[in-house]
Amino acid sequence: MHTSKHTRRSLLACAATTAFASSIRPALAAPKTIVWWYEGATAAQQAALTNYLTEPFNASQSDYKLVIEWRGNALPDQLLVALAGGQGPDIVLTNGPSWTQRFVSGNKLLDLNPFAQKFGWKEKLAPIVIQLGSYDGKLIALPKTIETQALFYNQTLFKKNSWTPPNDLTETEKLADTMLKAGIQPFAAGNAGQRFANRHLLGICYNNYCSPELVYKALSGEMPWNAPVFVEAVELLRSWWDKGYFGGQKYFSLNMNQSFALLAAGKAGMAMQGTWVFQWMPDTFEKTKQEMGVAALPQLSPKAPYPIFVLGIGADLAINAASQVAEGCAMVLDRLIDYSFVEKMSQVWEGEWNIPFAKPAPPVATTDPVQAEAAKLRAGLSEAMISGRYGYAPWTFWPSKTDDYMKGGVEEVWLKQITPKQFSDKVNDTFQQELKDGVVKKPPPRG
Amino acid sequence: MTSPRRRKRPPNRKWLFLLPALIVSLAVVLVPVIVTTLLAFTDWNGFALPKWVGLANFAAITSEPRFWAAFRNNCLYTFLFATLPMICSLFAAMMLMMIRRGRTFFQVVYFLPVTIATVILALIWRSMIYSPTTGVVGWLQQLGVPIDNPLVNVNTSLLGVLFVDMWSWWGYLTVIYFAALRQVDRSLIEAALVDGASRWQTFWHVLRPSILPTVMFMLLMSIIWSFRVFDWIYVLTEGGPGFSSEVLATLAYKTAFQSFEVGRASAYSLSMSLLGLAAIVIYLRLQARREKV
User: Which of A102, A106, A412 sits opposite B242 (nearest CB)?
Assistant: First the structure.
């Protein structure tokens, strides 16, 4: 009897323990979710990230599960609100160093130094991007991609007219005037719904007319933005606007893709654009069966060297300080900083995953002319970064308020509401105030 | 035995029924209003601790030409938005009163734009109507019609946006006014016509007084909605070219989300709200005066 009672009790206890254990096992074994809010991406691009990042990462371990949420164009605003409220994704994708700085001031991002040491990121990445991602000795952000600007042109049109890409200001203006006479818009450009495009043109004039050295001095506060040389650069941009190089008022009606259509159809000859256009421009040329060409941007005054590769970081990766899965996030970041990942992504998503490695990635043998051109630009930028002869992209180095003013202010110059001098004065006033407020990230010393 | 006078009155629990709506209203309206008001007196970038600066933000914004330009744009926008669609919609509602066949069809057509998201409508107008490459404007240009995209000219950009906003709004007003006109006692109209009143006299002396409360209310709503216009401007012009179509709401948004000056942006928002409040006060005074009469 006693034995039977004991056995029954034991059985009950055993059953209860088993039931309890089985009920908690899934909870213990369930991988923790890592959330990454990503901006907009096409279906093919989303598939590429799933195939080359999410699935391999999730299959490689059982502790974490990476989930990418596609947030579209509203991502920057959503991030600001979420992070300010101590919420948001685990992996934070910002619009580059000037945006990252704001999150740093509120201690919203984690110091990556322990992970950098563990995974050897500082040895893997170019020193300059480590410097740009560091704030007060803490490594806060890693670049998702680096960008530069180049002269894209319609090679079919150029061949037909025996034109060559211009190297300096004289050649540029001579070619642009010839195109205008032939009824061709010299530069395909537009800012409808994308007013940030204005400062891409302004940045080119500052770098390629004034020289990166002077831009560095101005960004460091050693020289004012209303110095005569900067005013001259704005005057040059206005004179190009006045001559109709950007299509006149049509500029305000076209968005980037519509302007590419003009270029691919031969209605426009050239476009001064960033390397991000490799994502879309080749497809536009594919539709018109014309050939796309890429060259370095022309030297706009003897003060500037040639060629200049502007360094831009349009996207930073960081870890939310409130994240409970920081270790997992670091594992994901480590996967991104990998030659093989970049190589795979560059074949399906050109122009967006240019991770700046300390040692340039081994050259990829390709027969694709577009990929070959993109690789050439990457190599040029890498060399410029190593030698310290790079230029400065506005969206990376200019503080937010100055950047915001430049977008609308340069339109006022074009529309003759203010003079280049008045514009430069306002840029300088805004910049000096931000410098005083300590929100300007000083660029690394030039090599 | 308890006398009826001494019987305890049941506790008044009527106010409990107000609670759910009151709590929601407090949470979504009052709290943000208080927070925005407080932030307007601070220097805050959205992340670090806010720093109390007193009236400095208001002093700064009122010394900015951009603020006054935006304010002027708001006033012009509101004036035109509150008057032109009202005239058009009253006229259209009167026309609808006169016809019997097709009334429902016209009401549906007029009402349709209100059922579509503003951003979608704005994108349709930007790319399918105003665009010189993919829109009706471009097609007309090819036909030789001297027309241009109004959004690209500093003198017409605000009016270009306003036109789209009015287009989406006037049909809604028409349906509302038509409904109000149908409530007017038909015998009054018939009596006026029998007495030899013209159509204009019938409208002015019989219909207008009857629908005046509706007109006044819609006028107030038009003023409030147009004064806080944001989406149409942001999608169609982003406040440009230059700052020609900038209004207070877009200025506040850019200041908060692009320049990271949340304190100053709150000052813009508060100024906008105060101006909106002034419109409400004027309306309520007019309403009270009308009721006294």
Answer: A412
